[in-house]
# Entry
Amino acid sequence: MDTPMQKPHDRLATLLSGDMDGVNALIRERMASKHAPRIPEVTAHLVEAGGKRLRPLLTLASARLCGYEGPFHVHLAATVEFIHTATLLHDDVVDESKQRRGRPTANLLWDNKSSVLVGDYLFARAFQLMVEPGNLRVLNILSNAAATIAEGEVLQLTAAQDLRTNEDIYLQVVRGKTAALFSAATEVGGVIAGVEEEQVQALFDYGDALGIAFQIVDDLLDYQGDSSATGKNVGDDFRERKLTLPVIKAIAAADDEERAFWKRTIEKGDQQDGDLEHALALLNKHGALDATRADAQAWTDKAKASMEKLPQSELRDLLVELADFVVSRVY
Amino acid sequence: MDTPMQKPHDRLATLLSGDMDGVNALIRERMASKHAPRIPEVTAHLVEAGGKRLRPLLTLASARLCGYEGPFHVHLAATVEFIHTATLLHDDVVDESKQRRGRPTANLLWDNKSSVLVGDYLFARAFQLMVEPGNLRVLNILSNAAATIAEGEVLQLTAAQDLRTNEDIYLQVVRGKTAALFSAATEVGGVIAGVEEEQVQALFDYGDALGIAFQIVDDLLDYQGDSSATGKNVGDDFRERKLTLPVIKAIAAADDEERAFWKRTIEKGDQQDGDLEHALALLNKHGALDATRADAQAWTDKAKASMEKLPQSELRDLLVELADFVVSRVY
# Structure
């Protein structure tokens, strides 16, 4: 099974399969509710839809890479997955999404109420889990991450259709919606293992840069992707009027006429046949897709470089490959 | 100012005004967001609407009553208020409410998205705050309370219009939606003060019983209240098809014809002119309002009795008076 052709996160999952069994068992145990059967129904729909479990894998890999032998990396990995799942439930309500991981969303199958309240339950369960290792620094990191995630989501709400949104604001949103949980996932692995500060920082940097690269790639694929490979339709973000990095770069280089086009289509949401094609032409004219790809590559390189501070091992090699794999999707 | 005519929670607020100033300052400081101004806008709308701040007062009173001299009861009181505020934001989305504390709700003034995400932010801020005292038992109590609250809300979602909902299920819902935060608020006051187990348990029991009495009184006022005094219209819960204690008691004593009436009006939601009057007649026929009042009184008595395990003081007297005051609204 372990061939070089397998994707790096699949090989991580194989290498850490004993730990992941523990994480999955803990998730099943803690998503239960004695009184409210609706909770495990909604949660199972999402948790068992076959997500990649990338974030808990990052926690397990970070802890093991730092030589951790105790039991609590499993709790922290489950915590991270619960926070992620809660966020997805609430995101789908906020975005009025109808599909997630190829299946109808919980807000569609049940209702918005269930998604909001079951999301709250999973947040609370995450906090119960993160208390169990009894490590105050871990609690600080994860509660800070939860605040950064929510702040990023609110910022996105106001910034998404505002043409003044620049690359700095985009980066804040991305750190909130994606990178904060990646960096917390890797950082707590090092903290629980008790490694020295420089290595903890390197793990944080890896997660932060990987998360940013991951989100930039996602936003780029929306304009250049092959929908059969990505499962996304080209132009979804354009139609939903989301200001992502490619468009931000094109707007920064726009003349008056182009600015008026973006204002009409993104800010006012007045879109007509042919607008997506025109948007793509403008992105190409200003080299915005190439520049976005270069940014994703730079964050990937940063992630890989930070791994040099950690001990050489098969796990470290896989984390480096994972960073390469994330950006490989846009070449 | 300090006359016997003042309500007990106003006198608590006066007695603890120095501590409450600290709580209010901390709430203002922590509801800020560097990046997302929408967050303090939404939060301020609710926080500054003049709620009674009953839950933080319970934490401050419990800690002081136990002789606590440190600074962290203020953090825990702010934590409890943030959890409460987050819950209100999400409740108003779930209930599609239009008014709260006599003002338009945040979901109406902004949108559901803002209420969901700002609520998440306040939950995260609450967890950051509760970590600061560095007390793991406090973290356990408050994260357990957060899970119980969310579980109770989900249970209510499925139980509210289900005629099989009995008094046991009602009590679980009430513990979740109201009593769990009351009992956590009082219990952490004792824990942070480091008093002995019997007194911690007494504080938990007081908060639990007070919270249950509080919610039963609220549900009873919905059927017997004077709308000018309570700000609620008689029959709101009936119109919203909420199965609360008075109706549960009437259903338990119903004959077949009465059962059919409750099935039509509550389960199916098919309500006609005169139905509320008929419902009130059935509640009176079976003595359901009197029996509900007796339950509220019994919980009040339990709350007062638990205070006997704590040292005699002005604060203890006020907590006893507070329990009497809660139930006095239905006589």
